[in-house]
TrEMBL record:
<keyword id="KW-1015">Disulfide bond</keyword>
<dbReference type="GO" id="GO:0001755">
    <property type="term" value="P:neural crest cell migration"/>
</dbReference>
<dbReference type="GO" id="GO:0005886">
    <property type="term" value="C:plasma membrane"/>
</dbReference>
<dbReference type="InterPro" id="IPR036352">
    <property type="entry name" value="Semap_dom_sf"/>
</dbReference>
<dbReference type="Pfam" id="PF01403">
    <property type="entry name" value="Sema"/>
</dbReference>
<keyword id="KW-0221">Differentiation</keyword>
<keyword id="KW-0217">Developmental protein</keyword>
<dbReference type="InterPro" id="IPR015943">
    <property type="entry name" value="WD40/YVTN_repeat-like_dom_sf"/>
</dbReference>
<dbReference type="GO" id="GO:0007411">
    <property type="term" value="P:axon guidance"/>
</dbReference>
<keyword id="KW-0732">Signal</keyword>
<dbReference type="GO" id="GO:0030335">
    <property type="term" value="P:positive regulation of cell migration"/>
</dbReference>
<dbReference type="GO" id="GO:0005576">
    <property type="term" value="C:extracellular region"/>
</dbReference>
<protein>
    <recommendedName>
        <fullName>Semaphorin-2A</fullName>
    </recommendedName>
</protein>
<dbReference type="InterPro" id="IPR001627">
    <property type="entry name" value="Semap_dom"/>
</dbReference>
<feature type="signal peptide">
    <location>
        <begin position="1"/>
        <end position="22"/>
    </location>
</feature>
<dbReference type="InterPro" id="IPR027231">
    <property type="entry name" value="Semaphorin"/>
</dbReference>
<dbReference type="GO" id="GO:0030215">
    <property type="term" value="F:semaphorin receptor binding"/>
</dbReference>
Length: 424
């Protein structure tokens, strides 16, 4: 999100609306009803703002729940704010040195690009792990959460942070200390990967330069859920034969994956992905193909997603809600497989469903037979499409492109009310 201020509740809201959980017999009526919409101006009196001179591109936000503080990453800056009123606690300048800037200019990049854009901001215990593009030489630091000037160590940001501020990325830290990042691995951005580093488990990545694994993806979000790490993104659909189109995906890997032996060395053996469907039903469905933002409600196992039309088409946005069980069901089903470039994409039975996540009790190498590794190398895409909770998107708006969302759940007198904040 670019701009010169951070608004309370994470986003400067274009609007918010409420979605209740009706009884099944009321579902049809609920789909027909208009959701109440409240504009940004109407909630203005209850919002707080933070502005800082010369600070732009407030793109990363995270919380320190223990101290009730908000940590914000902007271009060349880190800020600590009071969560209650967004008052400034600490501001830290984190710029590139002159030599790094000159090297960036020599590669044909502009002054605007050769800055330090904060793209990773993660809390782990009493430390803040943060990475910046650093003029196309990404770098990461571990800092004290209570004093952002106190740097404990500095490491390369390669495979942890994008080189370019224009490249989308996502990252998370697990309780075990592993960093999962989905980002571009190289300067030109031609080698996207989902990569695990740090911690005690071996570093692993998606297969390099293989469009069936990742095909020009734009990464959106990631979540640590149970035995898996989930990633949400949009990419050029390799299975679509009639011209170029973008599909939205949910992907996952097992957290105890240790990679292959001989085959798939240093590579995921449990990477799988499935298409997410968000569309307006009809004789000819109208598809919102491009995922822009997600929000996970762990207490209800729901994933909210903003989907838009292609940038070259008429602007339209929709919110679709997915149950985690529906995503798991797609991953348990058959694969979609193409024998060679001239063959059709056909369903293929899951040859070894238990290979999805071996347990430590069974031994880490129990599933690493040559046959299993061959299957893991070629069976990536699931045949079943993940369908949303309701056939009609929960919210739709034409002539708008939503880009960010946040969801809150409050208890009303007789039902749970989902309040959704949407921003352009």
């Amino acid at each position: 999100m670019k701009g010169t201020c951070v608004i309370a509740w994470l986003f400067s809201s274009l609007g918010l609306w409420r979605l209740t959980h009706p009884e099944p017999q009321d579902m049809t009526q609920c789909q027909r009803a208009e959701h109440p919409v409240i504009s940004y101006k109407e909630i203005g009196p209850w919002l707080r703002e933070f502005r800082a001179k010369n600070a732009v591109d407030f793109s990363q936000l995270t919380f320190d729940p223990g101290q009730k503080e908000l940590v914000v990453g902007a271009r060349n800056y880190l800020f600590r704010l009071q969560l209650e009123d967004l008052s400034l606690i600490q501001a830290v300048k984190w710029e590139c040195d002159e030599a790094t800037k000159k090297a960036c200019y020599s590669k044909g990049k502009s002054k605007e690009e050769c800055q330090n854009y904060i793209r990773v901001l993660l809390v782990g215990g009493n430390r803040l792990f943060t990475c910046g593009t650093n003029a196309f030489t990404p770098v990461c630091t571990n800092r004290s959460l209570s004093n952002l000037t106190e740097i404990h160590d500095q490491i390369s940001g390669m495979a942890r942070c994008p080189y370019s501020p224009q490249h989308n990325s996502t990252a998370l830290l697990t309780a075990g200390g592993e960093l999962y990042a989905a980002t571009a691995m190289d300067f030109p951005g031609r080698d996207p990967a989902i990569y695990r580093s740090l911690g005690i488990l071996p570093p692993l990545r998606t297969a390099q330069y293989n469009s069936k694994w990742l095909n020009e993806p734009n990464f959106v979000s990631s979540y640590d859920i149970g035995n898996f790490t989930y990633f949400f993104f949009r990419e050029n659909a390799v299975e679509h034969d009639c011209g170029k189109t973008v599909f939205s995906r949910a992907a996952r890997v097992c957290k105890n994956d240790i990679g292959g032996r001989f085959l798939l060395e240093d590579t995921w053996t449990t990477f799988m992905k499935a298409r997410l469907n968000c569309s307006r039903p009809g004789e000819v469905p109208f598809y919102y193909n491009e995922l822009q933002s997600t929000f996970f409600l762990p207490e209800l196992d729901l994933i909210y997603g903003i989907f838009t039309t292609n940038v070259n088409s008429i602007a339209a946005s929709a919110v679709c809600v997915f149950n985690l069980s529906a995503i798991s069901q797609a991953f348990a089903g058959p694969f979609k497989y193409q024998e060679n470039s001239r063959s059709a994409w056909l369903p293929y039975p899951n040859p070894n469903p238990n290979f999805q996540c071996g347990t430590v009790d069974q031994g880490l190498y129990v599933n690493l037979t040559e046959r299993n590794l061959q299957d893991a190398q070629k069976f990536i895409l699931m045949h079943e499409v993940v369908q949303p909770v309701t056939p009609v998107p929960s919210f739709m708006e034409d002539n708008s492109r939503f880009s960010h969302m946040a969801v809150d759940v409050v208890q009303s007198r007789d039902t749970l009310v989902h309040i959704i904040y949407l921003a352009t």
